[in-house]
């Protein structure tokens, strides 16, 4: 049992850790890392490797003194005899003060003395400077956060459970640091001119441009503003991907369609493809020198058209890219609809069609709204497809990109456009919450559910099949061409079969000295695999933990937390990438150029999908199961581990797969973060594409697809299926 | 005593679900919280479990102040209305769950879970999934799962509401038998007064967040303190009558043109609400004995074991049950009603 005595002991342990870290570890980051052990000798004497205590005593960094004093105070509070409630209050005060002081010195002291003139006026000129935080400082920060949550738990917050309090603090702190802070940092740029002076009117000016809001395309002449383009595209993409995703989910879960398994794999294919590959494939088929145009020209003498470049092409590519995400979200939702309710409806004189439209569909509404929101936000955040296929059709994300990398080099304009983009995402978010927010349909109850899933009504089945199957066929076609594209010399000109592209990328040579990975792609390939494999479990864990907190725990600021996690998802990768570079290339968190910043970017950019999937699945699990576990001595972490997680397996698989795949396929966010040492597959491929080396790019993309397919199968195998003990769906075609 | 509530209040925002409730549950007894839906009985039970924490007041379990402890930290377990069996675990895993979480070793947990299943008569069902069991069996698994922890207090939240009538009787007898045999302390929530009377040592009747009356089933049935209780505990005919005190222990109650002596030590003289139990009305063919209440049969139903009559009288329409089924009286028959003193209750307004 985790009574107050156990928690109090944890407080003592964390205070001791904090003190030891302040005395025995280098406070600031080391160039060569901790591995070499060379820092031990310089722990007291050198400025670089000095511990927190040494920095204060020997190197004149007096601004660390209050932080260390707060640590001592925490320790004293932990050993002093007190009632749990009073100890909790004292711990909250001491650790809270420590955190505030920590942040104050971290952000107050900059690269060259004080950050800000008023600080200089207050304290006088400062001699020292800030370095990036290292092992000692990080550990002290973690310990202070732990002590804060222990204090809160002792005061009875979060049901007196230290695990819940700790999870809460960890999720909140990390999201504030790695999502809210970089975004606020870059948005502040929207109100500044090139020299960093504050000019609020400039922001209005930047947003009022006709290039953003023009409606000329409706009147017949010229192009519409990028804001309208973005909005219209996102609405189409959200509705389309939800409808397609639902069709796939229904066919896979509710019909006896023979090739379901294949359909499942097929719908997953576009997810595991780097975004520009779909664009590339569409060009191979529909582009000016693509197959369709060549055939039409040759057969009917129709001159080549450019319809694919612009709105239709971008929408098509986005539907290919985001339908599978909707499918992943919706498959859990459709499976979660209680068969008993459908059976009840059928006994109430409702035929299959009425049952489907009046019971099953309304029960899925929260899930459908979630899928739409995902499609909508993915679309406005998408960068790869508009850049490849957009042509003159501009959207906000490409506009931002050109503002950053183009000749304009106008960070302020980029930030102002990002603000607009954010407003759209948040608008959709609020609308969704307003319409379906408070509803939950608990359909996995604690009672064994003995109903049989009702087969789809004939009409719905026909519609689903007529929508999904041609889509599937088309997908197959596109991938076929992509695959072939990697095996010919030059698409459109020279169709001689060749393996040359693969050999160039993935050659392995056997020499007397051993095996040499001489292919051009190996370096970026292994970096990608390593970083994605590190990021995926972290992404899933953080997303599902946040989902659990949001659905199952009652606390003040719940809405605010959900809101901030959605932020990272809504902000386009381009902006996130630039924001990360800006926020993390200066102390206190100096991690630009490291692998860490790439992993962090992956995790905090992709956790929102795990969060949404987890929330959708969790709100379908009856709360009485959690309560039963609690009355059976299951503490919060045990309930989470033994009861909630096993019932969440589809969501776990979804979050892991998505975390890995997005890490491998993302372009826009990491294009600013990669270095020669840590190059990623996608940025490498983009570079090949820019150099006109399509063959190698396609060959490498195919290899990535195979890699991700293998990873998905591995994850599915390791996590397994959810056993609900419902009776199996009986269909005429034999076993379901 | 095992459970003690002192002035416990539970508020949700501006609404008050439970307003100032105090009661005790003695060790080894089965106490029922009874009341209509929305009366606060389930909230009270969840506060015993620790699933809700009170807004004010004090809760003790087995002599320990647990007011601010969470469910995990209390020595209590609960059988849920929906059973809340974990759908992804087998029967044995469900029953062993609480033991495993209390750091009992796997071997011993399995052993004790088997014993628990044997206690509820489910030997050999170890490997089944909950969905493969009937409602009654699921119920027993839920009971076994709660029992094996040997809690100081076992809680039941409307455990029989998902079962059919025959099974409900059987299960309530089993629960009562189990409670007596193992000497368990049980708090039981139901809205069914028959069920409450059948299983309880003591009943606490709640209404609108307050305790209306508490006592043994017999006390509540024979001496309901309020009109609400007279209506809620069994059938009764509300009638207006006049009360006149004879001596310290008896009053004379006039209903229409009949008068009857009733044991009562509290009711003041004057007009009062009088509850008449249907089984205390003997239906005779008119003219009947002297002093009987005259009436006319309005409706008659044959129920196999007895007849049910609605009878129009000067004191209002009375509902009566009559064990004589061999000679039913058709509607329109003039009758004379003789009231048994035990079934006539003067109710405080």
Describe the 3D structure.
The complex is a heterodimer of chains A (736) and B (349). With 736 residues, chain A is mostly helical. Among the domains of chain A are: 4-160, no CATH class; 507-719, MetI-like (MetI-like fold, Orthogonal Bundle). Chain A has helices at residues 4-24, 52-57, 65-79, 84-108, 117-123, 135-154, 162-188, 200-207, 210-213, 216-219, 226-254, 260-268, 275-286, 291-300, 311-336, 339-347, 352-381, 384-389, 396-405, 411-436, 458-485, 500-506, 522-552, 558-570, 573-584, 595-618, 623-631, 636-647, 649-665, 681-690, 694-719, and strands at 109-110, 113-114, 488-490, 494-497, 509-511, 514-516, 730-731, 734-735. Chain A is globular, with a radius of gyration of 28 Å. With 349 residues, chain B is of the alpha+beta class. Chain B is 24% helix and 36% strand.
Essential attributes:
heterodimer; A: 736 residues; MetI-like fold; two-stranded antiparallel ribbon; 31 helices; globular; disordered C terminus; B: alpha+beta; Rossmann fold; OB fold (Dihydrolipoamide Acetyltransferase, E2P); 2 domains; 6-stranded mixed β-sheet; 5-stranded antiparallel β-sheet; 36% strand
Q: Report the radius of gyration of chain A as a whole number of Å.
A: 28 Å
Q: Helix tally of chain B?
A: 8
Percent strand of chain A: under 5%
**Helix and strand pattern of chain B:** EEEHEEEHHHEHEHEEHHEEEEEEEEEE
Which range best describes the helical content of chain A: under 10%, 10-25%, 25-40%, 40-55%, 55-70% or over 70%?
Answer: 55-70%
Q: Which class best fits the helix and strand makeup of chain B?
A: alpha+beta
- What's the name of the CATH homologous superfamily of the domain at 507-719 in chain A? MetI-like
Provide the structure class of chain A. Answer: mainly alpha
Looking at the structure, what is the overall shape of chain A? globular
Sheet with the most strands, sense and barrel status of chain B? 6 strands, mixed
Whole-number average pLDDT of chain B? 89
Distance between the termini of chain B: 33 Å
């Amino acid at each position: 049992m985790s009574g107050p005595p156990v928690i109090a002991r944890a407080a003592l342990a964390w205070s001791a850790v904090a003190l030891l870290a302040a005395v025995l570890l280098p406070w600031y980051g080391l160039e060569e890392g901790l591995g070499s052990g060379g820092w031990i000798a310089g722990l007291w004497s050198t400025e670089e490797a000095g511990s927190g205590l040494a920095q204060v005593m020997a190197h004149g960094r007096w601004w660390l003194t209050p932080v260390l004093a707060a640590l001592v105070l925490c320790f004293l509070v932990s050993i002093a005899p007190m009632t749990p409630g009073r100890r909790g209050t004292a711990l909250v005060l001491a650790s809270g003060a420590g955190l505030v002081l920590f942040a104050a010195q971290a952000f107050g002291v900059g690269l060259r003395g004080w950050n800000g003139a008023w600080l200089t006026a207050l304290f006088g000129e400062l001699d020292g400077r800030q370095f990036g935080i290292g092992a000692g400082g990080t550990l002290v920060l973690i310990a202070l956060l732990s002590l804060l949550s222990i204090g809160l738990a002792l005061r009875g917050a979060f049901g007196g459970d230290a695990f819940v309090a700790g999870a809460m603090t960890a999720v909140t702190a990390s999201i504030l640091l790695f999502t809210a802070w970089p975004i606020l940092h870059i948005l502040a740029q929207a109100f500044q001119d090139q020299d960093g002076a504050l000019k609020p009117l400039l922001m209005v000016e930047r947003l009022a441009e006709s290039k953003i809001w023009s409606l000329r395309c409706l009147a017949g002449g010229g192009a519409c503003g990028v804001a309208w383009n973005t909005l219209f595209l996102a609405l189409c993409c959200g509705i389309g991907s939800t409808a397609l995703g639902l069709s796939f989910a229904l066919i896979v879960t509710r019909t006896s369609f023979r090739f379901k398994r294949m359909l499942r794999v097929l719908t997953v294919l576009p997810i595991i493809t780097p975004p520009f590959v779909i664009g590339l494939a569409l060009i191979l088929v529909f582009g000016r020198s693509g197959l369709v145009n060549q055939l039409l020209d040759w057969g009917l003498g129709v001159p080549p058209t450019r319809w694919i470049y612009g709105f239709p092409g971008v929408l098509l590519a986005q539907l290919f890219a985001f339908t599978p995400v909707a499918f992943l979200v919706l498959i859990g939702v459709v499976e979660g609809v209680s068969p008993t309710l459908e059976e009840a409806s059928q006994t109430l004189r409702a035929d299959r069609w009425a049952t489907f439209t009046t019971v099953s569909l309304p029960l899925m509404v929260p899930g459908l709204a979630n899928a739409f929101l995902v499609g909508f936000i993915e679309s406005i955040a998408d960068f790869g497809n508009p850049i490849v296929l957009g042509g003159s059709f501009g959207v906000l994300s490409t506009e931002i990109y050109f503002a950053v990398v183009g000749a304009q080099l106008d960070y302020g304009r980029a930030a102002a456009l990002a603000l607009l983009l954010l407003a759209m995402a948040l608008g959709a978010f609020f609308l969704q919450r307003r319409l379906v927010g408070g509803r939950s349909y608990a359909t996995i109850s604690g009672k064994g559910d003995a109903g049989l899933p009702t087969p789809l009504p004939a009409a719905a089945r026909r519609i689903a099949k007529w929508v999904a199957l041609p889509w599937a066929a088309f997908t197959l076609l596109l991938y076929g061409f992509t695959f072939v594209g990697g095996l010919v010399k030059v698409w459109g000109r020279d169709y001689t079969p060749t393996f040359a592209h693969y050999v160039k990328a993935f050659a392995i040579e056997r020499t007397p000295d051993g095996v040499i990975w001489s292919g051009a792609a190996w370096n970026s390939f292994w970096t990608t695999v390593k970083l994605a494999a590190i990021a995926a479990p972290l992404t899933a864990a953080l997303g599902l933990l946040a989902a659990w907190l949001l659905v199952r725990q009652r606390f003040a600021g719940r809405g605010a937390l959900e809101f901030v996690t959605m932020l990272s998802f809504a902000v386009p990768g381009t902006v996130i990438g630039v924001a990360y570079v800006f926020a993390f290339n200066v102390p206190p968190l100096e991690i630009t150029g490291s692998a860490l910043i790439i992993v962090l970017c992956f995790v905090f950019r992709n956790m929102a999908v795990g969060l949404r999937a987890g929330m959708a699945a969790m709100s379908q699990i009856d709360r009485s199961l959690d309560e039963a576990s609690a009355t059976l001595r299951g503490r919060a972490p045990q309930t989470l581990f033994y009861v909630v997680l096993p019932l969440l397996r589809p969501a776990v698989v979804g979050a892991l797969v998505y975390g890995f795949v997005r890490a491998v396929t993302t372009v826009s966010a990491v294009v600013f973060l990669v270095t020669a040492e840590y190059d990623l597959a996608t940025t490498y491929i983009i570079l090949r594409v820019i150099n006109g080396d399509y063959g190698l790019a396609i060959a490498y993309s195919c290899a990535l697809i195979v890699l991700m397919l293998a990873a998905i199968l591995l994850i599915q195998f390791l996590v397994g299926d959810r056993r609900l003990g419902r009776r199996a769906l009986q269909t005429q075609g034999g076993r379901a | 005593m095992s459970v003690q509530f002192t002035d416990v209040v539970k508020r949700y925002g501006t609404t008050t679900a439970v307003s100032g409730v105090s009661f005790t549950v003695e060790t080894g007894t089965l106490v029922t919280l009874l009341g209509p839906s929305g009366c606060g009985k389930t909230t009270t039970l969840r506060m015993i479990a620790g699933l809700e924490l009170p807004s004010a007041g004090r809760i003790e379990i087995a002599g320990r102040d647990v007011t601010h402890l969470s469910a995990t930290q209390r020595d209590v377990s609960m059988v849920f209305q929906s059973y809340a069996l974990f759908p992804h675990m087998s029967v044995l895993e469900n029953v062993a769950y609480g033991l495993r979480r209390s750091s009992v070793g796997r071997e011993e947990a399995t052993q004790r879970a088997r014993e628990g299943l044997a206690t509820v008569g489910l030997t050999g069902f170890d490997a089944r999934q909950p969905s493969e069991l009937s409602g009654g069996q699921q119920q027993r698994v839920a009971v076994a799962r709660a029992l094996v922890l040997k809690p100081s207090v076992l809680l039941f939240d409307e455990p029989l509401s998902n079962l059919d009538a025959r099974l409900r009787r059987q299960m309530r007898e089993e629960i009562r038998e189990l409670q007596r045999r193992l000497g368990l302390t049980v708090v039981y929530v139901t809205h069914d007064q028959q069920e409450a009377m059948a299983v309880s040592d003591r009943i606490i009747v709640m209404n609108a967040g307050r305790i209306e009356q508490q006592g043994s089933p017999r006390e509540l049935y024979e001496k309901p303190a309020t009109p609400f209780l007279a209506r809620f505990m069994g059938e009764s005919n509300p009638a207006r009558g006049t009360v006149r005190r004879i001596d310290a222990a008896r009053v004379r109650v006039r209903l229409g043109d009949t008068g009857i002596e009733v044991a009562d030590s509290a009711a003041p003289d004057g007009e009062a609400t009088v509850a008449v139990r249907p089984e205390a009305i003997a239906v005779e063919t008119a003219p009947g004995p002297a002093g009987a209440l005259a009436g006319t049969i309005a409706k008659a139903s044959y129920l196999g074991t007895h007849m049910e009559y609605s009878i129009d009288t000067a004191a209002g329409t009375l509902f009566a049950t009559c064990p004589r089924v061999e000679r039913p009286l058709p509607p329109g028959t003039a009758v004379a009603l003789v009231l048994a003193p035990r079934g006539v209750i003067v109710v405080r307004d």
